[in-house]
UniProtKB/TrEMBL annotation:
Entries under CDD domains matching the protein: LuxR_C_like (cd06170), REC_NarL-like (cd17535)
Domain HTH luxR-type: 146-211
Superkingdom of source: Bacteria
Name of the protein in its database record: Response regulator transcription factor
Domain Response regulatory residues, every copy: 3-119
4-aspartylphosphate PTM sites in chain numbering: D54
Gene Ontology BP, a term: regulation of DNA-templated transcription
A matching Pfam family: GerE
Molecular function (Gene Ontology), one example: DNA binding
Keyword hit for Transcription regulation: yes
InterPro entries: CheY-like_superfamily, NreC/VraR/RcsB-like_REC, Sig_transdc_resp-reg_C-effctor, Sig_transdc_resp-reg_receiver, Tscrpt_reg_LuxR_C, WalR-like
UniProt source species: Amycolatopsis rubida
Keyword 4Fe-4S among UniProt keywords: no
Length: 213
């Protein structure tokens, strides 16, 4: 059972999202909040696998929720929902540890699938956001510091990191490099430790910043 904490300041939006998520028998919304100020207390109380949070909220926004939650020991994954293709919070939310970024007009079935994808340890971004992010990286990347952080990686770890940045799942990386999925997970863990990345999304950002994907 995938346990989710849902945070959004609009009651109707929360109700709709909860109904969509719990239409899947493998998902349980264990708690809801109308603002990010309750996030830490609810995470500690309910130990969700995933926090699904709005970006713009009146007191504590999704960016701060991401920072607070990902700093917790054994932190749950954080997925940010937004009404906009891209806003001022997107890059910073991802850099602070968000594992996914989705639009609120994501079709119900795709939203449910995205929760399972993130719950399994993968990253998930809406396609339009991915395109905008790649454009941003192409015009605003700072390759030297990013490349320095990637320097400690072995050639195989670098291959895995580039594949992650290209959007490949662990299974796809395993097939492409002739490895087992377990070995890919070991490589990914070492990559995150060496680069001080919180999750695979931050690894992807780092690789794009370095101009390697």
């Amino acid at each position: 059972m995938l346990k989710i904490l849902l945070i959004d300041d609009e009651v109707l939006v929360r109700s709709g999202i909860r109904m969509i998520l719990e239409s899947d028998p493998g998902i349980e919304v264990v708690a809801e909040a109308g603002d990010g100020r309750e996030a830490l207390a609810l995470v500690r109380e309910h130990r969700p696998d995933l926090v699904l949070t709005d970006v713009q909220m009146p007191e504590v926004d999704g960016l701060e929720v991401t920072r607070l939650v990902t700093a917790e020991p054994d932190a749950p994954a954080v997925v940010v929902l937004t009404t906009f293709d891209l806003d001022e919070y997107v890059h910073e939310a991802l850099r602070r540890g968000a594992t996914g970024f989705l639009l609120k007009d994501t079709p119900p079935r795709e939203l449910v699938t995205a929760m399972h994808v993130v719950g399994s340890g993968e990253a998930m971004l809406s396609p339009s956001i991915t395109r905008r992010l790649l454009t941003h990286f192409a015009t605003a990347a700072t390759p030297t510091p990013a490349r320095a952080r990637l320097e400690p990686l072995t050639p195989r770890e670098r291959e895995v990191a580039v594949a992650v940045a290209q959007g490949s799942s662990n299974a796809e990386i395993a097939r492409g490099l002739g490895l087992s999925e377990a070995t890919v997970k070991v490589h990914l863990g070492r990559i995150m430790a060496k680069t001080e990345a919180a999750n695979r999304t931050q690894v992807a950002i780092l690789v794009h910043d370095a101009g390697l994907a």
